[in-house]
Design brief:
The structure is a single chain. By secondary structure, this protein is α/β, with parallel strands linked by helices. About 40% of the residues lie in helices and about 15% in strands. The strands form 3 sheets. The chain has a 7-stranded parallel β-sheet, with helices on both faces. About 40% of the residues are buried.
């Protein structure tokens, strides 16, 4: 792992919703804490995660344990950040959604926003449609009660940074705030091309907005192709029930959460990545795949439009199983091999060093504006 630490006396605190598993938001929080020699404050700490992410030296402090099941989990996270005793720092950086509840009392501050809470806004109706009647009633009441509190906390944020242009647009639309854009980091040097293999790869949390059903239906049309899906369930989701509802064919294999070295190995040996999330915030998996010299076949919406160069590092297609299956069928080993160099060059634009340099300027400005 590259040493990006900024050797300056500025004392930085990073607050992130949780450190229970490693996802894109958790990587951002750990990278910021490592780069700025910062204290990281979270709920639900798994102490092994910093070392597993290659950032063993990060100082992580658990401020609370919270329930697993929503919406009690989100309520307790918000309450924990509102009340947590955090020592004085020169600047406070919030990552995630519930850490912003500390904004009214911790200043100067900056929020690295992965997205406004989507069930409050653009995924409100689609989320409610997945719930049984009683669950829908409870969720509607919780959203009506919680959204104004969330928006009030956001008003205390002094500087907003979005992880993509797509998210910056949501922030302006739903929260009436402007945001700088800094793409999340990928340690490009840790990924390697091995060979163009036979299996396709998908890296996705098992939740409704990731459109795992679309992945499954696409490969049901392609019995001669193989798909490996890496990722665990959203908190509160039963894996067994989720998989039963999909009824996946034999050529689709769910691997669950796997160690980072194994994931990098799969990137290096797969045919390419298939990405189907609904209006993805940004999406680190396409960049990780391109850093491994692999093409990306993604639905043509959201953050994928900001990372994948259509026709050069992969293909952007309509969100249908027919369109995805057609692109996969055309992506022969020879074709994707010829795109390797373009993929690796594109990934360099999102390297960790680029992220750290941009965030350094913004965090220093936030501290000086206090």
């Amino acid at each position: 792992m590259r040493d990006d630490r900024i050797r300056e006396p500025m004392r930085v605190a990073v607050l992130h919703d949780h450190l229970r598993f490693i996802g894109g938001g958790e990587r951002v929080a750990l990278t910021l804490a490592s780069a700025f020699d910062a204290d990281l404050y979270v709920t639900d700490l798994d102490p092994s995660l910093p070392a597993r992410a290659g950032m063993r030296a990060v100082r992580v402090h658990e401020i609370a344990r919270v329930p697993v099941r929503p919406p009690l989990r989100q309520d307790r996270q918000a309450r924990a950040f509102m009340a947590a005793t955090i020592p004085d720092h020169d600047v406070y950086v919030f990552s995630g959604n519930w850490s912003v509840f500390a904004a009214p009392r911790l200043r100067p501050n900056l929020w690295y926003c992965h997205t406004p809470v989507r069930v409050f806004y653009d995924l409100h109706e689609s989320f409610l449609a997945t719930l049984p009647p009683v669950g829908r009633f409870v969720a509607q009441r919780w959203i009506r009660r919680s959204r104004p509190k969330y928006e009030q906390a956001v008003r205390s944020v002094q500087k907003v940074v979005a992880n993509s242009r797509n998210v910056a647009t949501r922030i302006e639309r739903f929260l009436s705030r402007s945001a700088d854009v800094v793409y999340p980091p990928v340690d490009v040097s840790s990924y390697r091309f091995d060979h163009v293999g036979d299996a396709w790869l998908a890296v996705s949390r098992l939740s409704h907005e990731k459109r795992v059903d679309l992945l499954v239906e696409t490969f049901r049309r392609l019995p001669g192709e193989k798909l490996l899906i890496v990722g665990g369930p959203q908190l509160g989701v039963s894996v067994e029930r989720f998989l039963r509802s999909l009824n996946p064919p034999a050529n689709v294999e769910f691997l669950g959460e796997i160690p980072e070295p194994r994931l990098r190995e799969l990137y290096g040996t797969c045919r390419g990545l298939v990405a189907t999330s609904r209006d993805e915030d940004f999406g680190l998996a396409p960049v990780e795949a391109m850093a491994s010299g692999k093409v990306v076949i993604a639905v043509d919406d959201g953050g994928y439009r900001e990372s994948v160069v259509d026709g050069e590092t992969g293909w952007l297609v309509p969100p249908t199983s027919e369109a995805l299956a057609g692109a996969i069928a055309r992506a022969t080993p020879d074709h994707v091999t010829r795109m390797r160099d373009a993929c690796e060059r594109r990934a360099q634009s999102f390297d960790s060093a680029v992220f750290v340099a941009r965030m350094r300027a913004l965090i220093e400005a936030a501290a000086q504006d206090s």
